[in-house]
Amino acid sequence: MHQNNVVAEVKNLKVYYDMGDRTIRAVDGIDFTIREGDCFAIVGESGSGKSTLGLSLIRLCPGKVSGEIIVDGVDLMKLSDEEIRKFRCSKISIIFQEPSSALNPVMKIGEQLMEVFTVHGYSKSEAYERSVKLLKTVGIPEAEKRMQSYPHQLSGGMKQRVIIAMAIALNPRLVIADEPTSALDVTIQAQILNLLKNLTKSYGLSTILITHDMGVAAEICNRIGIMYAGKMVEVGELESIFSNPMHPYTRALMTCIPRGLKGLLKPLPGHVPDLSNPPEGCRFHPRCPYAKDVCKKEEPKPLHLDDRLVLCHRVGEI
Amino acid sequence: MGVKPVLSALKYFFYRILTLAITLIGLVTLIFILIRSIPGDPARVLAGMMASEEDVNLIREQLGLNQPIYVQYFIYLKNLFTLNLGVSFRTDSPVISEILARLPNTLILAVTSTCLAVALGVPLGILAASKKGGKLDLFLSSLSIAGISLPIYWLGLILILIFSVELRILPAGGSGTPMHLILPTVTIALYLMAFIVKITKASVVDSMEKNYVITAKSKGLSERTILYKHVLRNALIPVVTIVGLQFGALLGGAVITETIFAWPGLGRLIVDSINSRDYPMVQGSIFIFALLYALVNLATDLLYTFIDPRVRLK
Amino acid sequence: MMEKYKQLFKSTRVQLCLSIILLFIFMALLADIIAPYDPIEIDLSKSCNPPSKDHLLGTDELGRDILSRIIYGSRLTITISFVATALGATAGIFFGVISGYFGGIVDTIIQRITEILLALPGFLLAIMFVAIMGSNLWTVIVSVSISMTPSFIRMVRGLALQVRELEYVLAAKQLGANSIKIMFRHVIPNISPTIIAQVTLNLGTSILFASGLGFLGIGVPPPAPEWGTMLGTGRAYIFYAPHLIIFPGLSVFLLVLSFNIIGDKLGEIIASK
Q1: Measured by CB atoms within 10 angstroms of the end CB, which terminus of chain C is less buried, N or C?
Q2: ipTM of model
Q3: Neighbour subunits, C (≥3 Cβ pairs < 8 A)
Q4: Would you state the pLDDT for residue A260?
Q5: Is residue A87 included in any domain, yes or no?
Q6: Which residue of C has its CA nearest to B25?
């Protein structure tokens, strides 16, 4: 990868939800960098804060966000509402988990797709032409006819293709895909993943794939970040993480990649901790088979080893 | 549209008409049973204790009370559905012609007040929703719950007190000029508006929390565009339905409003007929009310299938 | 769940509404002690007197003390509202649960009857029953309760349908628990919060209906000091004695508003689960 072509840089990102009597620290100090052409997977169990992270990157998260999100040299956190609006979709876009609820049920597909263009200054006729072309690109047959369809007339996989079309419509610098396949049938999942893989290649897109499924991550990504309880506990190149997982949590995730197609995470006994009251020290220690006294007291500092980042007291010892 | 969807729409329509007819038959059967189950001579019961022997005989004849009960029932059904609603005890004129003369007044009142209520209530509901949690929302919501709790008969009287007694700018009752229409319209509209504000707000708030709103935001749409283009299209569908149903219910409320303002509609006819024990008239008006109510509900239902693309008739 | 209800009583609005309701209930209970005059004693020499020291809310067309009539009237209103709602809700819950829980032919029959009763707007249905049965306290109560029963059946049936599919209810069924037991143990407790909210709203509606009938002259008949009836007779004097209609109407409004606000808040709390 080209070290210098940085597309996005996230520094000390924190997302807190103020619930009145307590604060949920859904994302608690995360750093990572996306380089051009990267497909970066953020892997974690549900409740790890990974979806919140995705939403906050495009500044759609209702919580209190702090830190820096630099995309294409611009810190999104410093943009006004109006500026971020123009940034969305044109520079950074997002694909949601539930294709059925992500589309407006009473608007035609074409209308919803064309909107992406018109809101960013295209004329109606141009928007129409580009939309039809896009639908063909994402593999929707009879594109002209589909423009007139309502979401409920399409299958889940087709709807997700439409969502993907919206996300890539303006050729953004960064596409965030939040569990793009988990609401779909297994056979459709593979198709959609393939589509994403091909599109990122042919468009040269950089993507962040948020998933709970190590298998999915392995299939299309080149870098992986493992998220646990609001922290990124390990980040590195795909091969190196797969061949040598350093964090005990990553190891646990690895052992549960199933041989079949679907890899639902049920890695460990216990649950992701309550993010309004996370355990002291290393947040993973209550579930960690290697936990020592130091893990219970001190928060581990990020450890850089080559291109790898690990958050664990016991790296090298285990 | 091809031939098939048209056919299936027709089929649905006939199905609805059929269930409507069955329900109406059920209602009139209930009335039939209730009247017959009151102890004593039904003709005497119908005419009231004060009625002359002549009236009682007239009823006996009209309803075929000398014949077996099932024959009576079929005569009764046949009469109703051919709109042969009998002759008023009070005026000696056919019930149906009296009703038809009054009906337009009731409909005018219902239509004007619904229009006014929708024109004010829907925008205010949207406003409350878009400022959810703010002072304006609190104010509008309080106003709305107060409006729903106001007894409509009291509201009407208070309006008379203000505009007819104190300010002397509007007539307290009667009909004939557009001025006469104002107070009854406003009375009904205020109540209905309070209700519409409440449901519009709830529906808009509900729609604003849907995922497609986040999608729209992620496309770079402004809050305003999202509200008008995405949210309202969804949120107003249930509002249309509920307003339709309320329009039907207004026909019930008309009874009170028409009484307050001496408005010569169907509602007042019922009350006058009850008070003068004019049973053919009471029965006839209730039947016509039920028929209207059913038709309005049917129309609302068909409208709903028309405006919501998700409901395409199979 | 109890936590949730505590939240209800924390709201100042709700506290205020509860106090208003309790005030009227006390008035109803202690009418004999606190009412300054006999509510039905006629004194034509005092006809339509405006509010004064002797008669705080004035007198009506027959010289009766309006305050006393309102105090005694709260007896009627509270009775009608609570009894009619209790009857309507009980019938609604009974038929609704049976309909939703058992399904099949029982469900069909109950649903058809419900549809028939829904063929008229609620208030007209009440008018119809009163028109046929005549008007006195009991026919008003029964009519009002019948008019609220069908929508209650609908709501409860819908809820029961949902609960029926809950896992532990299915499990209880599989274990051979009998239906009545399941209904009382699982179905009814499960749907009770929503029902309580609806009952609260219905307490308000039933007052509106009952006094609406009174206003039309087909409710609780005079000389009983029913608020709606007072409004109905008082409106003839609106041009020179507006106090005849202001105070009874205000009482109806305050009581209905209180029930509605509490009912709304309850609904909100349930929805916020």
Answers
A1: C
A2: 0.86
A3: B
A4: 42
A5: yes
A6: C116
Do both A177 and A268 map to the same domain? yes
pTM, to two decimals: 0.85
Q: How many Cβ atoms from other residues are within 10 Å of residue A4's Cβ?
A: 7
Q: Does B146 touch chain C (CB under 8 A)?
A: yes
Tell me the residues of C at the B interface, defined by beta carbons under 8 Å apart.
112-113, 115-117, 119-124, 127-133, 204, 208, 211-212, 215-218, 228, 231-232, 235, 238-239, 242, 245-246, 249-250, 252-253, 256-257, 260-261, 264
* Residue written as token pair 């409509």: B152
- pLDDT (tens digit, 9 = 90+) per residue, B31-77? 888 877 766 666 776 666 667 778 778 777 776 777 787 887 888 88
Percent of chain A with pLDDT over 90: 22
Chain B residues touching A104 at Cβ < 8 A: 212, 215-216, 230, 233-234
SS3 annotation, chain A: CCCCCEEEEEEEEEEEEECCCCEEEEEEEEEEEEECCCEEEEECCCCCCHHHHHHHHCCCCCCEEEEEEEECCEEHHHCCHHHHHHHECCCEEEECCCHHHHCCCCCCHHHHHHHHHHHCCCCHHHHHHHHHHHHHHCCCCCHHHHHCCCHHHCCHHHHHHHHHHHHHCCCCCEEEEECCCCCCCHHHHHHHHHHHHHHHHHHCCEEEEEECCHHHHHHHCCEEEEEECCEEEEEEEHHHHHHCCCCHHHHHHHHCCCCCCCCCCCCCCCCCCCCCCCCCCCCCHHHCCCCCHHHHHCCCCCEEECCEEECCCCCCCC
Report, as an integer, the average pLDDT of C124-137: 86
* Neighbour tally for B65: CB within 10 Å: 18
Q: How many CB atoms lie within 10 A of CB B3?
A: 7
| Rounded Cα–Cα distance for residues A208 and A225 (Å) | 10
C-alpha to C-alpha distance for B127 and B177, rounded to whole angstroms: 34
Boundary residue ending a domain (A114, A142, A171): A171
Q: Does residue A318 lie within any of the structural domains?
A: no
Same domain for A143 and A225, yes or no, is no
Structure tokens at C248: 């009874």
User: pLDDT higher for B122 or B305?
Assistant: B122
Report the interhelical angle of B95-130 vs B178-208 (nearest 10°): 40
Q: Does A76 touch chain B (CB under 8 A)?
A: no
Residue A1 within any structural domain of the chain:
no
Domain count, chain A: 2
| Residue finishing a domain among A171, A195, A224 | A171
Q: Are residues A70 and A207 in the same domain?
A: yes
A316 assigned to some structural domain: no
Same structural domain for residues A167 and A187? no
Domain range enclosing A244: 6-91+172-310
* pLDDT at residue A21 in the model: 80
Going by C-beta distance under 8 Å and a sequence separation of 6 or more, which residues neighbour residue C137?
C76, C79, C80, C220, C224
Same domain, A176 and A150: no
- Are residue A96 and residue A161 in the same domain, yes or no? yes
**Can you give the pLDDT at residue A261?**
40
Clarify whether residues A142 and A27 are in a common domain: no
Mean pLDDT of A63-90: 88
Q: Which residue has the higher pLDDT, B314 or C106?
A: C106
For chain B, the straight-line distance linking the first and the last C-alpha, in angstroms and rounded, comes to 13
Residue B282 has pLDDT above 90, yes or no: no
Residues B275 and B48: their CA atoms lie apart, in Å, by: 11
Claim to verify: residue A165 and residue A289 sit in the same structural domain:
no
The CATH number of the domain holding residue A295 is 3.40.50.300
pLDDT above 80 (res C187) = no
Distance of CA B289 to the CA centre of its chain: 8
Q: Distance, in angstroms, between B272 CA and closest chain C CA?
A: 9
